[in-house]
Amino acid sequence: MRGLRLLRAPAVLCAVACALLSAAGTPAYAHTALQTASPAPGAKVGTDTRVIALTFGGLLKGTVPKVSVAGPDGKPLPVGEPVVVPGSTVCAAVNGLPTGVDSITYTVLAVDGDAQTNRFLFQVTKSAKAAPVPAACRGRRLPSPPAVQASGFLERQGTAVLGASAATAVLAAAVGVFAAVRRRRRGTTAVGGGDTVTG
Predict the structure, then answer these.
(1) Disulfide-capable partner of 143 in 55, 77, 81, 110 (CB 3.0 to 4.6 Å)?
(2) Distance between CA atoms of residues 166 and 85, nearest Å
(3) What span, in angstroms and rounded, lies between the C-alpha atoms of 85 and 76?
(4) What is the domain partition of the chain in residue ranges?
(5) How far apart are CA 83 and CA 91, in angstroms?
(6) For residue range 18-48, what is the model confidence (pLDDT) as tens digits?
(7) Cis peptide leading into 39, omega within 30 of 0?
């Protein structure tokens, strides 16, 4: 019986130590946990939503979380540079949202320096009201979203370059044909002994 007690004692001590370690490690992550959001996870908001707001339990001083928004097709939507306001709230401007199931992805740095990335979904419909703007974000100048997302610009630029290349190729071919015709005419004229044609 005494032997069983001796065996149980290390097990109990180990369990207590693990519990203490877990409790000690929790605040680093809980400190930066998302408390509220607008739009909120699972919420239904209108297409005229203009501000994305995320409030955390606390943010590492001097850091600005990364915030991105994606439409129902998974493609990124233009989002203004996030601004951190008092109360550990992050505000970012958007140019409205497409209907369907959209998503918000955010990355924050915990107190221990580890990056935490999370994502949640919400629904956008034409009949719903715009997501409410928290008081912390009201009346603040938020950077406007880019007119064209970087990836979209590259795609458009690539298309433009491709079109220009095609036009250049057609023009080069036309010039080549024209030059060949002129050479042929000159050759024919020389053989026939007529006047020389000059361009």
Answers:
(1) 81
(2) 50
(3) 24
(4) 31-146, 148-192
(5) 5
(6) 444 344 444 445 567 999 999 999 999 999 9
(7) yes
